[in-house]
Amino acid sequence: MVSKKPTGPRNKKRGRIEPHFEDSSVRPEPRSSPISKPKRATKSGPGGASAAKKRAPAKSGAKSRSARGQLPLWRRFFPKLAYWGVVMGLWGCIAVGAVFLFYAAQLPSAASWAVPERPPNVRILADDGSLIANRGLTGGKALRLEDMSPYIPQAVIAVEDRRFHAHFGFDVIGFSRAMVRNIMQKRLREGGSTLTQQLAKNLFLTPDRTFGRKIQELILAFWLESKYSKAEILELYLNRVYFGAGATGVDAASQRYFGKAARDVTIEEAALLAGLLKAPSRFTPAKSPKLANQRAAVVLRAMEREGYIKPNRTQKGLYRPGENARYFNSGPENFVADMVLAQVKKRLGKIDRDLVVKTTISPYLMSVAQTALQTNLDKSGKKFRVSEAALVSLAPDGAVKSLIGGSNYAKSQFNRAADAKRQPGSAFKPFVWQAALEAGYFPDTAIEDRPVRIGKWQPANYDGRYRGVVTLEQALSLSLNTVSAQLTQQVGPGTVADVAVSMGIGSKLTKNASISLGTSEVSLLELTSAYLPYANGGRAVAPYLISSILDDKRKTLYRHAAPPQSIVVRDDVLRDMNRMLVNVVEQGTARNARLKGHVAAGKTGTSQSFRDAIFVGHTAHFVTGVWFGNDNNSPTRKLTGGSLPARSWQSYMATAHRGLDAKPLPGMVRVSPNVMPVIPVNVATPTPRPNARSARRGRQDNQNLKERVNRAMNGGEDPAPRKSILDILLGRGES
To answer: Which terminus of the chain has a smaller tally of CB atoms within 10 A, N or C?
Structure first.
């Protein structure tokens, strides 16, 4: 059969070859059964040559598969691993992105993100511009990097984030290393956070240790890195991080632990500060100096490793915490700082910015006062069974120069100088004598020291003795209670109270006979300020502590201006009061308070059952009050105002007057640089005071009375029978 080959333009053009058969009787070979063995083809058999040729490619593929089986395992599986690694990486990125988006959605809009304002700080300065204390949530002011010691940022970077300048907010190497260590130790010991992450947490987040908070921290760290330079981030961090013991920021920490400005911090001190960041409450030197130094040694080695300090620098010794670290919150300046903050709030209201408050406090006098009180407490506290003391010292214009509110601020923040109200005892008597002088009495006026009964009340003298006829000056010098009670009865308790109020007493006074012995409670500050007119010429002035208040832009918000002053003590009364109060120091109950080279005046006071002992005295330069007692109001062991209070007053005032010129008190003209003036005791007919009430004048000019007065002062007995004041005034029974 002849095959037909199709022809035509189409087939010719495409070159298509149609299938054809040589013999139509030929049929395809049946497929062999799967279980039957294939017939081996021969070279001479039908189709043998072509079959061999067709099997040749199959033999080549088998050889290729055999070659692949001999390749290394990693070469055979690496392409697959790479492929699936890329696939899993893509899916991981998608998952991480989804997680980031989920927690980022819980944050406020990024457009509203801003670094929150640092809590305001009140910087309290002394009269010489030195720092007394900081008050506020941070405990210090914000500083620029250039205002800090360069060792502080170096130490922090070395131990907390040594790749700080290289990463973008997240340290992959540091994080991986921390995770490996956590896995090996089977507990979470390291977080691997960068300084930027720590700052983000401090600024925006809570301290909760959750996965979601960590993701938000990382998001905010990226934002901080994109918005601020490395220097700005480091500055923000050092001003916001907590260093323990209530100190936030390097300014507060350097003052807290070293008592110095941050710019003056040494290498060892910077290492100690950086070491606190890991666990501030654990490594604080105020609590554990040993742990603080051990941690500081770790920081110093890190600084050496990073090249910030020379090799072997750590062998020169570490910082040893001193008194400032251990007793930082115990100093008396804290009583002043609390008072200042309360007055600033009262004057300005809400504090919404940094403030600088300059006070009238003298750091030198504060130190002198604290030493004087503590020395006497340590020396004689157990002997007299007394545990606390307070002191107030004022300039004649009312400026508070020193104030000690207690022996240890850390143990008790109660201000015994300003807030405690106690009975002043005989220290209140000058107001009784002043009321008597204003009513027409004189220092030389005679009055009888005798038993007195006023209703059911019968006052007695400290020693239980009665001295007969004495002058008012002698009675004040000896602090005779019976004379004070008689004078109060004669001028009236209300008059005495009015005099005390006009002098500066602000507490409520009970207007009864016992006011003569100082039974109404007052604070040491107001009692001391009530003596100011005796030192400044009779002018009533209020004590003040703040000179000026400025904000962080140096704008003056307040400046002290002396209000109009009124004269509350007449010149003649002022002269006589100072004369009698000087005699108290020179010849009376306050002889322990005598000052060499300066005229000193004052009055002792002892409350009922010896619970409180007080001495308030003044010179032309200072008015100072001292109190000793117990917080629980328990009696002391017969402690009087003429003992520890007068001695402490003398110790403080002697040092405070070094280099100051000797000046007379108002109304007194004699001043000897080495010898104190002695006021003679004379009994003579006084010159009537202008506008004095004649019914209340104590006049006498009898020579026998003068002799009895002198005998009484010299310890002799008066042979004449005791007479009432009426008998003396009327001259009854006189020979």
So the answer is: C
CA 36 from centroid of its chain's CA atoms: 103
Return the DSSP state at 582: H
Q: Are 705 and 728 in contact (CB under 8 A)?
A: yes
Concatenated DSSP letters for 301-336? Answer: HHHHHTTSS-TTGGGG------HHHHSGGGSTHHHH
Distance separating alpha carbons of residues 138 and 240, to the nearest angstrom: 8
Q: Provide the edge-to-edge strand list for the sheet that holds 612-618.
A: 400-404, 388-394, 623-629, 612-618, 601-606
User: Token pair for residue 64?
Assistant: 């290729």
**What Rg value do the Cα atoms of the chain yield, rounded?**
47
- Residue found under tokens 């956070």: 193
Do 341 and 135 form a contact (C-beta atoms < 8 A)? Answer: yes
Q: What mean pLDDT do residues 224-239 have?
A: 94
Number of DSSP helices (H) and strands (E) in the chain, helices first: 25, 16
Say whether pTM exceeds 0.85. Answer: no
Alpha-carbon distance of 501 to 456, in angstroms, equals 27
Beta bridge partners of 615: 604, 626
Q: Which of 651, 670, 669, 671 is nearest to 661 (CA)?
A: 671
Query: Which pairing describes strands 355-359 and 121-125: parallel, antiparallel, or unpaired?
Result: parallel
DSSP β-bridge partners for residue 624: 393, 617
Cβ–Cβ < 8 Å for 173, 149:
no
Pull the structure tokens for residue 121: 């700080």
Least confident of 135-149, 198-212, 227-241, 357-371: 198-212
**β pairing state of 539-540 and 131-136:** unpaired
User: Helix crossing, 211-227 with 195-204: angle to 10°?
Assistant: 110
Considering only CA atoms, which of 132, 138, 135, 139 is closest in space to residue 122? Answer: 135
Tell me the C-alpha distance between 11 and 92, whole Å: 58
Estimate the crossing angle of helix 429-438 against helix 571-587, to 10 degrees.
140
548 neighbors 358 (Cβ within 8 angstroms): yes
Token duo for residue 672:
């000897």
Residue 620 tokens, joined: 């032309």
Helix, strand, coil share of the chain (percent; to 5): 45, 10, 45
pLDDT one-digit tens code per residue, 284-320? 887 888 888 889 999 999 999 999 998 876 544 455 5
User: Which runs of consecutive H residues, i.e. helices, occur in 120-190?
Assistant: 151-160, 172-185
